[in-house]
Amino acid sequence: MSIKQLKNYVRDCVSNYAKFDGEQYSLSLSDIPDFVQHEFAAHIMGEDEAYASEATSPDNKLWDSKMFPALQSYLKNSTDKDEAFEFNRIWRDCVTSYCHSRMEELIEDALQDYNQDEGYTVKDWNNYYGVSHLFGARP
Question: Is residue 70 situated within a structural domain?
Fold first, then answer.
């Protein structure tokens, strides 16, 4: 996966899930469905192999408490479909959780571009430079 594909995916998330608050579009990670966050994590890991290694290793803060115990349980009962389902759920959620900070960075960057493309000012930029009266939000 290329960085361009990742940025296109993030842009699609912003265009599909961002909400207009009267001044600009905003998007919280909690507004994005879980299954989309899982795919988002896959795109991030596909773009950065080192990050993918961290997300699936003891570098992940959930490794000791959830990921490693789930792996052990699954390997002990690898023919049990319920155990396989639980292992999948835990690993999917833990890896996705590890990627949340990167997702938030990418969403913030995409939101700035999206708001500019849509003709809306970015609140923080206006407040910082004190020019909101010159470049007010589009009605």
Answer: no
Exposed / middle / buried, residue 78 (Cβ in 10 Å: 0-12, 13-18, 19+): exposed
Contact criterion met (CB below 8 Å) for 104 and 27: no
In a domain, residue 44? The reply is yes
Candidates 31, 49, 50, 40; CA nearest to 9 is: 40
Q: How does pLDDT run across 15-52, given as a tens digit for each residue?
A: 999 999 888 999 999 999 999 999 999 999 999 999 99
Q: What Cα–Cα distance (Å) separates residue 134 from each residue in 61, 92, 131? A: 46, 47, 5
Q: Position of tokens 């500019």?
A: 116
139 located within any domain: no
**83 within a domain of the structure (yes/no):** no
Q: Can you point out the beta strands (E) in 1-139?
A: 19-20, 25-26
Question: Which range of residues forms the domain containing residue 8?
Answer: 3-61+93-129
Domain count, the chain: 1
* Each residue's pLDDT tens digit, 121-135: 655 544 444 444 444
Nearest to 111 by CA among 42, 45, 14: 14
- Give CA–CA dist 17/15, Å, rounded: 6
